[in-house]
Structures are given as structure tokens and as C-alpha cells.
Specification:
72% of the residues lie in helices and 0% in strands. The chain has eight helices and no strands. Helix 4 runs parallel beside helix 6 and helix 5 packs antiparallel against helix 6. The relative contact order is 0.14. InterPro entries: TPR-like_helical_dom_sf, TPR_rpt, Ycf3. This is TPR repeat protein.
């Protein structure tokens, strides 16, 4: 299941082309398999995003990670929230933590690439986007792969 591929691509594109302060507050969807308490905080984080409360989103994902510290999905979510808060170093750290737990998460590579791009780490960003596109292709998510490949062509 690819639970949050399209929003990740949209975030990648938005972070690159939307001026600061105009970012959409749309969260990634979280896959199943975290403890019930953590799931409650995840849902609250997603609900906070629908109210454009990115700080509330981040706080709830922090609590979810306290209850489910080995959940790569929560690290991806919190990384998204941190990127929305312009905490790009924190976002990179969270996406990297997600990838340590599950190395084939294309969304984490895409998000990490976008945060690295914002930090001025252009080559690392491009490497992450290439890896994300490769994983999307391997999983049959050709549309997401093509969108990332378009980003790679645009941001050389």
C-alpha cells in the first residue's frame, strides 16, 4: 500500500516553488500498525493539520513517537510537520530516522530531499529525489516517479 505518495510529491513541489508563509497544511496519511495510543495522537495530528495548526500537528506526533518510538510512519509525519515549521534540520533528522527503520520508504526520501534542498544541500537533495523516484518505479507508482523526475529536471 502507498498511503501517502501523492501528498509527498505535492509537498516536495510546494516547498520548492511556494513562497514562505504560503505552504499548504496538508498532512501525509499514516499507515496502520502503531499502538492504539499512538494512533490516537497521530489522528489528532492529522486533525490539527486540517485546522492549519502545524505546531499542534508536531506536538501530537511528538507524543505518538513517545508511545511508538519504532514507527517509521510517525517519523515521516513529524518530519513533514517540521518542514512545514521550516525546521528543515529536524525534518531531515526525522526522515533519516524513518529510513533507518524502513529503508525503502520513497516518501521519506522525497521529503528529506526537499528539506535538504531548502538547507542548500542541492546534491544530497537530488540524490534523495532520485532514490525516491527509483523506489516509486519499483513499487509501480509511475506517476509519483514521473513527478519527482520532473522536479529533478527543473532543479539541476
Amino acid at each position: 500500500m502507498r498511503p501517502f505518495s501523492l501528498p509527498v510529491i505535492l509537498l516536495t513541489l510546494a516547498l520548492l516553488v511556494v513562497p514562505a508563509g504560503a505552504m499548504p497544511a496538508r498532512p501525509l496519511l499514516v499507515a496502520q500498525s502503531v499502538s492504539l495510543g499512538a494512533g490516537d495522537y497521530i489522528q489528532r495530528g492529522i486533525d490539527r493539520a486540517s485546522h492549519n495548526d502545524v505546531r499542534g500537528m508536531n506536538e501530537n506526533f511528538d507524543k505518538a513517537l513517545q508511545l511508538a518510538p519504532n514507527s517509521y510512519q510517525v517519523y515521516v509525519q513529524r518530519g513533514y510537520a517540521r518542514a512545514m515549521l521550516k525546521d528543515y534540520k529536524g525534518a531531515v533528522a526525522d526522515q533519516t530516522a524513518a529510513l533507518r527503520l524502513k529503508p525503502d520508504v520513497a516518501e521519506a526520501y522525497a521529503n528529506r530531499g526537499t528539506s535538504r534542498y531548502r538547507l542548500g544541500e542541492r546534491e544530497q537533495a537530488r540524490a534523495d529525489w532520485r532514490k525516491a523516484a527509483q523506489i516509486f518505479r519499483q513499487k509501480g507508482a509511475d506517476e509519483q516517479a514521473e513527478q519527482l523526475e520532473a522536479v529533478l529536471r527543473q532543479y539541476k
